[in-house]
Specification:
Length: 215
């Protein structure tokens, strides 16, 4: 999540510009020379940092999956045990990513299948762990609905938050939402989606447990 305050390294600059160009024109529509020009070095000079475009793509998609998971784990570790506050922190962290790293969302949607099998499996593994981290928090806050419903809600919220690449284009006569407006809107929508679980019917296991306790 984009919380760095120190100056980016040359390698990070290359990755940032590669992500932007790949998202704008597609992986095969961008050459090494163009990426190099975007950071002020020759195309061949990029090979001192990466063996090629495939390696850049893999590092971008694996890297953002690792950052999201690490950020989620850090929020869990720093929480005071309040699941509502923790879910809010997870939502805010993902919103930061979704607003600050929009090209990576586009890149993931368009280019994930271009990764080698091992790299693509790594991305999927990291994403599953990230989902399960959220599911565990959501189930603590809303224990009544079935686990499958909680998991489906997490995926739905991710889809909602990851829609940010589409927030940047305005139709005639309309305007683009500012950062603060978009952040506030996404936060309300995410909390609203999870809040709907509060009125969901209890799962069979929870109902059975409650019945047994009443006897």
């Amino acid at each position: 999540m984009s919380t760095r305050t120190d100056a980016p390294t040359r390698r990070e600059q290359i990755l940032k510009e590669a992500a932007r160009l790949f998202a704008e024109r597609g992986f095969h529509g961008v050459g090494v020379d163009e990426i190099g020009a975007a950071v002020g070095i020759s195309g061949p000079g990029l090979y001192r940092h990466f063996p090629g475009k495939d390696a850049m793509l893999a590092e971008l998609l694996i890297g953002i999956s690792e950052r999201l998971l690490d950020g989620g784990r850090q929020r869990v570790e720093e929480s005071d045990g309040d699941p509502e506050a923790l879910l809010g922190a997870l939502i805010d962290g993902h919103i930061d990513f979704a607003l600050d790293d929009r090209p990576l969302i586009t890149l993931h949607d368009r280019e994930l299948d271009r990764l080698r099998d091992t790299d693509r499996k790594r991305v999927r593994q990291l994403q599953r762990q990230y989902v399960e981290l959220w599911v565990a928090v959501v189930r603590r806050l809303y224990p009544a609905p079935p686990e499958a419903e909680a998991r489906a809600t997490v995926h739905a919220v991710f889809g909602l938050l990851n829609s940010t690449p589409h927030l940047g284009s305005a139709s005639a006569g309309s305007r683009v939402l500012g950062r603060a407006e978009a952040e506030s809107l996404l936060r309300r929508l995410a909390h609203g989606a999870f809040g709907a679980l509060a009125s969901a019917p209890a799962s069979a296991s929870v109902s059975a447990s409650a019945s047994a306790s009443a006897e």
